[in-house]
Amino acid sequence: MSVLNSPNLLRYALIGDAVASGATGLLMIAGAGILSDLLGLPQQLLMIAGLILMPFTAMVAYLATRQTPSPGSVWSVILINIAWVAASAFVLFGGVVSPTVLGYTFIAAQAIVVFAFADFQFFGLRNAQAA
Questions:
Q1: Whole-number Å distance between alpha carbons of 129 and 126
Q2: Of 4, 22, 59, 74, whose CB has the highest number of CB atoms within 10 Å?
Q3: What is the domain partition of the chain in residue ranges?
Q4: DSSP assignment of 29-71, as one string?
Q5: Residues 29/22, Cβ–Cβ less than 8 Å
Q6: What is the pLDDT of residues 76-97, one digit of tens each?
Q7: How many CB atoms lie under 10 A from the CB of residue 101?
């Protein structure tokens, strides 16, 4: 059985997303001052992005605890994740900020992880609806 066909894929993808989003949000909030210098990103941008992740984390964690999360709610998470990836691409290539090499790496890495969560959530939702 492929990982993408696992009946638990949606739950695991939601849990992973909640943990990663919460950890990243807390890191950006608590470390905005230090990260700003290391990443070459405005401290306010890091703080706001971290604060945005907190309610998102709560929503995803809540969905992960449901026996059968509503498809509409899961689609909301998937679309928010895709919007986050698009916003990350804008930060990287929009010319509004000038990240350091570490900043480019951080933004690209978290965008790739977020896109992977959206992908796993999509396949997990498809599996749940087929069951």
A1: 5
A2: 74
A3: 3-130
A4: HHTHHHHHHHHT--HHHHHHHHHHHHHHHHHHHHHHTSSS--H
A5: no
A6: 999 999 999 999 999 999 999 9
A7: 9
- At 60, the amino acid letter reads V
Distance, in Å, from the CA atom of 16 to the CA atom of 60, rounded to the nearest integer, reads: 9
Nearby residues of 53 by Cβ (< 8 Å), 6 or more positions away: 21, 22, 24, 25, 28
Distances (CA, A) of 22 to 38, 71, 113, 119, 123: 21, 22, 14, 19, 23
Query: At 1, is the pLDDT very low, low, confident or very high (cuts 50, 70, 90)?
Result: low
* Digit-coded pLDDT (tens) for 10-39: 999 999 999 999 999 999 999 999 999 999
The pTM assigned to this predicted structure is 0.93
Residues 6+ apart with CB under 8 A from 89: 111
